[in-house]
Amino acid sequence: MKIEELLIPSVVAAVKDLYGTAIEEKQVQLQKTRPEFEGHLTLVVFPFLRISRKKPEETAQEIGTWLAANEPAVDKFNVIKGFLNLCIAPDFWVKILEHINADEHYGIQAASPDAPLVMIEYSSPNTNKPLHLGHIRNNLLGWAISNIIAANGNRIVRTNIVNDRGIHICKSMLAWLKWGNNATPETTGKKGDHLIGDYYVAFDKHYREEVKSLTTQYMAEGMTAEEATDKAKENAPLIREAHEMLVKWENNDPEIRTLWEKMNNWVYDGFNETYKALGVAFDKIYYESQTYLVGKKEVEKGLEDGLFVRHEDGSVWADLKQEGLDEKLLLRKDGTSVYMTQDIGTAKLRFQDYPIDKMIYVVGNEQDYHFKVLSILLDKLGFKWGKDLVHFSYGMVELPNGKMKSREGTVVDADDLIAEMISTARQTSEELGKFQDMTNEEKDNIARTVGLGALKYFLLKVDAKKNMMFNPQESIDFNGNTGPFIQYTYARIRSVLRKAAEENIGIPATLPAGLTVSDKEQELIQHLAEFKGIVQQAGTEYSPSTIANYCYDLVKEYNQFYHDYSILRESNQSNKQLRLMLSANIAKVIRTGMNLLGIEVPERM
RNA sequence: GUCCCUGUAGUUCAAUGGAUAGAACAGCAGUUUCCUAAACUGCUGAUCCGGGUUCGAUUCCCGGCGGGGAUACCA
User: Fold this and answer.
1) Whole-number Å distance, CA A356 to C1' B18?
2) What nucleotide is nearest A49 when CA is compared to C1'?
3) What is the pLDDT of residue A2?
4) What ipTM does this complex have?
5) Lowest-confidence pick of A263-267, A360-364, A381-385, A411-415
6) What Å value separates CA A82 and C1' B38?
7) A152: CB partners within 8 A, 6+ apart
8) Is the entire prediction scored with pTM above 0.90?
9) CB A7 within 8 A of CB A30
10) Complete domains list, chain A, with CATH
């Protein structure tokens, strides 16, 4: 029950009755009244002036009079210019609160067995280095979006495509063989993904040295700097060895394959730890090593069908000039597959495995072009779902000195950041004296919940499509518009409710009649009633930030109103019950909203 | 060059085409006999520039300027 929905038909009826013209519901603009004016909801009457052929004030006056007479929910009204401010009758607020209170899962819709099936791909790591801050944003967005889509009544499948093959993996393997001395996660005590990442870095370091000395050599032989660099990059012994290894891998060389499996498993163990710490999971994981051949086959079929062309050197291309794009490579001259080929294969397998109604890819906006092309190619290949795939394109996380670049060592490591957030939360709790009378387990849980809450909220409150700034020096706040602020308010409400329960004060399903609801409480009830609409909006726009900002606004408002209010010491029993019910439902909505974002709320902190 | 995204207080972020553009952080000044002070109150401070559409533009359109990205036989 949303108050707006209640009133819109009445406004339509009013216009019809007064001016004899039928209007559509979507033409009715009802918004929350600004706090400086009296009223709850405001009707913007400017759009009706053409129909009424009267001045704004006059039109507003007429509609207001009609509503006050014919709509029981409207108590009284006032007019300021073209704005008609409506006051809702007090007992309506009580009814709305009781309605919210009756629904334990307010705002969440369960999926029926025949509900649309939505598959969400996110994370998609490479197995040659550990996860960084950019991956965290991806994972949190993917998790939150899938929760939100599920909350809107859809069935979901969370999926991950692991880029587990290719030249980058060979680089790590080669470096490990050369300089690794058989190091393992066990012998070094390092997480597997970090161990592999170290060898990837080592490869790059040695490779650059080789390129540098080769370049000088070629230049001494009379090449220009540019020519020399290009040739050096191609001819450096290390990169040639890596390419040889890739060929061996593709030819199923048993030695290489065994090594590859061993090292990838180390990485997966490492990733799983990070995923667990972040609280994300997957229903089905695809591996590029298992899908790229499927993609290759599709491309070859497309070639036979005349959809693609083969160039003289043997490479295969798609001509997308008709679609306003360029030519796109699908198979290299040596017949090996590229990123696009693999994505075609993965898509095919997924639609074979599941009756997917909608496919959503959570991938950074640097790949907007890639997904535009993928959509067209899938469509050309005759997959009817190709056209409708959704690329949920999110912005990059930027650092004060620019983009994150692994080569320049400017990445913010995911595991480091998580550990740092948790230890900061622990330290803050200790300084504030929150940890008295707590077991070590409780302390651990609170530090983890609050630290991750701060991190997650920080990344999710920003509009996903925008680039965002992260300053490691300033680190993430625990005060203000933050996760811990919301968590703290939740914990305080829960504390009040615990004390009420100890005193055997229950919350009845219906509140006593004749209750006076103060203006502030009316506003809070109105705010609470918006939650359902917010979840819907977040679902259609795929925007976790909508929910994050809603939760903050609600909490901020609650803190302001109830800072000087007493709930348990209130002498009037009816008021006490109203305040308890209101608080309990604010806690419920906060918990629901934060959980949709993948953020836990603690019972105490 | 072409294409895509983006430009709001000192900083990080908000604002279905609506009233006086909201917060937070930082700065300054306050609030604790009282259900958790990770709180609350007050002050200072912003829509890149120029046109257009509209009763009304931060929002939509066009043109500049600034930032990011794509246009790889990397993934």
Assistant:
1) 41
2) B55
3) 67
4) 0.96
5) A381-385
6) 43
7) A109, A535, A536, A539, A540
8) yes
9) yes
10) 3-88 (3.30.1360.70), 165-263 (no CATH), 414-596 (1.10.730.10)
